[in-house]
């Protein structure tokens, strides 16, 4: 299973969620950058760049959900949350 292999490699749901949010931001940057770099080209090309990068976000969110579900079954999500709460109380 791909999700299990990703988990074993150290990829966590938080990583996928961060990648999804970065993809959303990158799509805006790609759109704006395409407008500035290629001013003679119409807006449609810039829109396509923004949409292309923006399409990654749902995939990353889906991976995040699948990893989160796996972490809940595996028990590592609960341990991570517990450690996070202890770290907040300590510092």
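^ Assign residues to that structure.
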């Amino acid at each position: 299973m791909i999700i299990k292999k990703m988990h074993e490699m150290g990829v966590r749901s938080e990583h996928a969620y961060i990648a999804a949010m970065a993809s959303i931001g990158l799509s805006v940057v790609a759109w704006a950058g395409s407008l500035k770099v290629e001013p003679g080209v119409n807006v449609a090309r810039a829109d396509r760049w923004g949409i292309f990068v923006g399409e990654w976000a749902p995939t990353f969110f889906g991976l995040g959900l699948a990893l989160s579900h796996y972490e809940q079954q595996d028990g590592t999500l609960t341990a991570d949350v517990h450690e996070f709460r202890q770290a907040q109380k300590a510092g």
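The chain has one domain: 11-84.
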